[in-house]
């Protein structure tokens, strides 16, 4: 489903990436796009804090209720996945040709939407969370494989430069 969503958005959304001739300009563009991927994480932190505040726990360091634990786990996992996603996206931006840089904001949007889907499905039940997690993890895996291909096959001479 992820390749179909990315391809459809790439073809039908009417925007293009700005002209980014240098690596530093591409990294700044990636950093700006990645800012939008933090929206589900910040929202999760807010909801986690509110649910912790509104829980009827008498001991602040005691056992957490299921609702509080869901939000806390979601925020923790999202932060870990965001770090992996961001670093892979930053490396990907250095290897993509100019005409494919439109993928950077599309992948950012996919990350944000898939984390929100994961959060909702995780709140419904633990058995439903596989769809949202796979929408986050499989594009991450594809980016990692493309980055390794770019580093070791396309430009092995520039690996450490």
From TrEMBL:
<keyword id="KW-0472">Membrane</keyword>
<keyword id="KW-0812">Transmembrane</keyword>
<keyword id="KW-1133">Transmembrane helix</keyword>
<dbReference type="GO" id="GO:0045055">
    <property type="term" value="P:regulated exocytosis"/>
</dbReference>
<dbReference type="GO" id="GO:0005765">
    <property type="term" value="C:lysosomal membrane"/>
</dbReference>
<feature type="transmembrane region" description="Helical">
    <location>
        <begin position="103"/>
        <end position="124"/>
    </location>
</feature>
<dbReference type="GO" id="GO:0032588">
    <property type="term" value="C:trans-Golgi network membrane"/>
</dbReference>
<protein>
    <submittedName>
        <fullName>TMM79 protein</fullName>
    </submittedName>
</protein>
<feature type="transmembrane region" description="Helical">
    <location>
        <begin position="131"/>
        <end position="152"/>
    </location>
</feature>
<feature type="transmembrane region" description="Helical">
    <location>
        <begin position="29"/>
        <end position="53"/>
    </location>
</feature>
<feature type="transmembrane region" description="Helical">
    <location>
        <begin position="74"/>
        <end position="97"/>
    </location>
</feature>
